[in-house]
From TrEMBL:
Organism of origin: Lentzea waywayandensis
Entry protein name: Surfactin synthase thioesterase subunit
PANTHER family: S-ACYL FATTY ACID SYNTHASE THIOESTERASE, MEDIUM CHAIN, THIOESTERASE
Gene Ontology biological process: lipid biosynthetic process
Gene3D superfamilies: alpha/beta hydrolase
Amino acid sequence: MVCVPYAGGGASAFWDWPDLLGDSVELWSAVLPGRERRFGEPAVTEAALIAAPLAEAIRAEIPKPLVLFGHSMGGLLAFDVARRLGDQVEHLFVSAAKAPHLAFGGEPHLLDDDGLLDWMTTLGGVPADLLAHREMLGLLLPTLRADLTVCAGFHGVRDVIDVPITAFSGTDDPLATVADVAAWQHHTVAGFDLVVRPGGHFYLKDDPAAVTSALRSATAREGVQ
C-alpha cells in the first residue's frame, strides 16, 4: 500500500499504520517536495509534477499487488497516479477528497498567511503544539499554499479509471461532504464503495484503527492480500 498525504502533510501522517494494517500489508508513504527530508526542495503547484515521478518510482520499486490510499489532496494525487499506472493498481482508496470534477471550493490558496492558517486550523489540520511556533508555521505555509493550488487545478478533470475505488468520508466534513466524496463513483468502471465515518475532515486521526480495518476488509474482498 502506498499512502499519499494531505495538503501540508507528510509521510509521518502514516507512521502508526504498519502495526494497524498487520503483517500482510507492506506500507510505503510518499514524501513529497517541500516537506520532511525533501524540505529543501520547492513545493510544486502542478499535479503532474508530483504524480508523474511518483508513478515512475512506484513502477520501479513496488511490485503487484498494489493499492493506493490518499487523504484529501493525497486522494486526488493517488487518482492521478492510478491513472498513470493502469493495471498495476488493484484498488484506489480516497479519503476526505471531493471528486476531481468538482470545484475545490473557497480558493484557500489565494488567502494571505493569516487567513490560510485560520482556514487550516478550522479544518483541524494544524496540531495544537505547532500553533505556538509561528516561525515554523511561516516556513510551512508556502508548501501548504502550493498543495492547495494543486487541489484547485483538478477542477473539471473527468477521467475514468478501470480500478475499483473505495471512498471514505467524514460525516461532518465541511470541505468534502458525503455527497462530494460519493461523486467518485463517476470516475471508475470497476466498482465503487462509500464508507462514511463519524468526524470532520481529519476523521481518520480520531480512530485510525477503524480506517485501517476497513482498508484490510476491502483489500481482502478484492483478493489483493
